[in-house]
Amino acid sequence: MSLIHGRKTVFKLAGVDLTGYTNASAPEFSADNHDVTVYGKNSHVFAAGLKNGTMSVSGFYDSTAVTGPRAVMLPLIGADPVQAIHQPEGTGSGLPQDKVLVLVTKYTQTHPVADMVTWSIDLQFSDDVDSTPQ
User: Fold this and answer.
1) Is residue 123 exposed (0-12), middle (13-18) or buried (19+ Cβ within 10 Å)?
2) Taking CA atoms, which of 37, 47, 48, 71 is between 20 and 30 Å from 5?
């Protein structure tokens, strides 16, 4: 078994490397299923449907960087899909990565009284995920 530490993860959105602002990411891959059970069966029978996916990403707010999370993400809410790149083992030849067009569906800032300001986004996959290694 080869365990990989999360600190190596790379996240890019709309051509901007946001890795230095990001501390958590969670891609979720799913697919529709359709009940095709007919008379006479004792159990459900299902057929595969369309693939789907989402990703949540979060990190620390940076007010000084023009290319920081807020500056990059806010203009993307309600805009056409942009490319997201997620590299769970970091950058390097042959390492895994997922590239997909995404809609930015939600941007949230959190301002706790006794902690750092943070941000999070929700992304909706739009079309197939390209999981070709780097």
Assistant:
1) buried
2) 71
